[in-house]
């Protein structure tokens, strides 16, 4: 019993001495920093262990960030591709609108130059029968359209109305084999008739005599409406001569021309009223 009491007091004394020593060391280190070097070495020894312990956590964070960044980049790339596609579509529509605007300005510009009353009409259909050159437009009696009314575009004569209904009309193009148009050579004043050949872009010029052929007409001459026949006003461009061939066995030469109007490419045309009509 006595020995146990002695051991307990010795243990308490040791604890008190350790506490006092610890406090003394802490105060001494606080004032004089004696243990700074020791702590530095201890931190250097512990750092690799801390790094190894922390490595899985950092690896997991890096992997998560990499995956998230890749997913974000893929989503951003997909979004940019979609936006680029939409912008391309918008740009195509813009170009189409620009072309439409330019085409309409040309049509209206041609009407201002000639001074006659005109109205824009849209082409609804094209006759697909062989050798026929006819179109259907979206103007009719309700728009004051009349038979034999001239039809032009920004470049020249296209044809004339041959059938009229309430809200639409049929136009025979000048290249139709049934169409004949009195014309005149601008350079020489020679009068002739431009007849359709049933092909896409050709006119035959009739009744041009072989005698004095080189003086009366040649390749490159501009052909315009002569005003004869009282259907087309005088001076509208019709065609340009592309071939002049004398025919010894016949009184007249073979002369072909190419129309000025964009007969097979137009989407709109101009209906023409003479100044003293309607």
The CATH topology label of the domain at 117-273 is Thrombin, subunit H
The separation of the N and C termini measures 143 Å
Biggest β-sheet, characterized?
6 strands, antiparallel, barrel
Regions with pLDDT < 50 over 5+ consecutive residues?
Answer: none
Radius of gyration: 48 Å
Q: What is the name of the CATH superfamily of the domain at 117-273?
A: Rod shape-determining protein MreC, domain 1
- Main sheet: strand order: 1-2-5-4-3-12
Give the tally of β-strands: 12
Fraction of helical residues: 40-55%
Task: Please explain how this structure is put together.
With 278 residues, the chain is α+β, with helices and mostly antiparallel strands. The chain has a domain of 157 residues: Rod shape-determining protein MreC, domain 1 (Thrombin, subunit H), CATH 2.40.10.340. The protein contains 3 helices and 12 strands, in the order ααββββββββαββββ. The strands form 2 sheets. It has a 6-stranded antiparallel β-barrel with strand order 1-2-5-4-3-12. β10 and β11 form a beta hairpin. The longest helix is centred in the N-terminal third of the chain and has 79 residues. The relative contact order is 0.11. The model has no long low-confidence stretch (mean pLDDT 80).
Short description:
41% of the residues lie in helices and 26% in strands. The chain is of the alpha+beta class and 278 residues long. It has a domain at 117-273: Beta Barrel (Thrombin, subunit H), CATH 2.40.10.340.
Secondary structure blueprint with pairings:
Blueprint: H1 2-32, H2 36-114, E1 117-126, E2 134-137, E3 150-152, E4 157-164, E5 169-173, E6 180-185, E7 191-196, E8 203-206, H3 213-216, E9 222-225, E10 237-245, E11 254-259, E12 268-273
Antiparallel strand pairs: 1-2, 1-12, 2-5, 3-4, 3-12, 4-5, 6-7, 6-9, 7-8, 8-11, 9-10, 10-11
